[in-house]
Design goal:
Blueprint (H helix, E strand, L loop, with lengths): L7 E2 L3 E4 L2 E4 L2 E4 L21 H8 L5 E6 L6 H10 L3 E4 L6 H10 L3 E2 L10 E3 L2 E3 L2 H7 L4 E4 L8 H11 L4 E3 L14 E4 L2 E6 L2 E4 L5 E4 L3 H10 L5 H8 L1 H6 L16 E4 L5 E6 L2 E4 L1
Parallel strand pairs: 4-5, 5-6, 6-7, 7-10, 10-11
Antiparallel strand pairs: 1-4, 2-3, 8-9, 12-13, 13-14, 14-15, 16-17, 17-18
Helix pairs in contact: 3-4, 6-7
């Protein structure tokens, strides 16, 4: 198996002593649709077959989440195997029809990866119009939706629609940040061997044919929702902390409460990060 490299680490911050730690790995690929692969390389895309699944399950203690396309051959069996080992399965990079998404839900899929991006929506099949993964996720109360609220990946109207349908307890803010995050305008970088550029505040393939992740920070997403969409600040913060922690089963993260880790971020009135504490220890100022 030559899987795409793990796309990103999950956004919940953890620490041991004063050293930042990773809560777990999110594997985004290679079990995805070639039609919805975004910036991922086509030669790495494959259906979930037993050898590849078993290779990943060897690291189930590190993997918190795996994204796959529910319509692929073998996807339903893969969902059961990963879910059975405590790995949260998310639908994404998918061209699924409504029935594909529902079958995946029955087997254990409980979230979708970067809502509206690289996923199917309602379209005609013969003379009938059938829902896709987008509409299934909006209609199913138990599905948690990732949202890249950077102002580039998803329009304000779509973000408002998602909020009205799901509420803050079923939305996880995700940066979708790649290697271009933090680089200056016009900077070049490589993603899976693809040439990419930071342009207009977002990451693009160098030929401008597709988005290549985000250049945003989590605080940028919180600020955008509170200021531009007018959403309650406490709900924006919950979408960046509590909901993601619950989505991947972290029992001691995401809340200011007894017996939870003392992971704190102090924000200025302008919603800029002033200080960060991990388990009571200051790690950024």
């Amino acid at each position: 198996m030559r899987p795409a490299a793990p796309r990103r680490f999950y956004s919940v911050r953890t620490c041991r002593s004063s050293i930042p730690q990773i809560a777990g790995v999110h594997i985004e690929g290679p079990f995805i649709s070639k039609n919805k692969r975004g910036a991922q390389r086509a030669e790495f895309v494959q259906a979930p077959a037993s050898p590849a699944i078993e290779q990943l399950l060897e690291h189930a203690d590190l993997i918190k989440r795996l994204t796959l396309a529910p319509e692929l051959s073998g996807a339903l069996e893969a969902i059961e195997k990963f879910s059975g080992r405590g790995v949260s399965v998310s639908g994404g990079h998918s061209d699924a029809w409504d029935e594909d998404a529902r079958a995946a839900f029955v087997r254990g899929m409980r979230s979708v990866t970067h809502m509206f991006n690289c996923m199917s929506s309602a379209r005609r099949r013969g003379v009938y119009r059938v829902a896709g993964l987008v509409e299934f996720a909006l209609s199913e109360p138990e599905i948690v939706c990732d949202l890249i609220a950077d102002g580039h990946h998803v329009s304000s109207t779509l973000m408002k629609m998602l909020y009205q349908a799901k509420g803050f307890s079923r939305i996880c803010l995700v940066t979708d940040a790649t290697a271009g995050a933090g680089l200056t305008e016009g900077s070049r970088f490589s993603l899976y061997g693809n040439d990419c550029i930071v342009e207009g505040g977002v990451c693009l393939l160098a030929d401008r044919s597709a988005l290549a992740g985000s250049a945003a920070r989590m605080v940028d997403l919180v600020r955008r929702g509170a200021r531009e969409l007018g959403l309650p600040l406490h709900e924006e913060i919950a979408m960046a902390t509590q909901t993601p922690a619950h989505a991947i089963g972290l029992k001691n993260k995401g809340e200011l409460a007894a017996r939870f880790d003392a992971d704190l971020v102090i924000l200025s009135p302008e919603l800029e990060v002033r200080k960060t504490f991990c388990r009571q220890q200051e790690t950024f100022r």
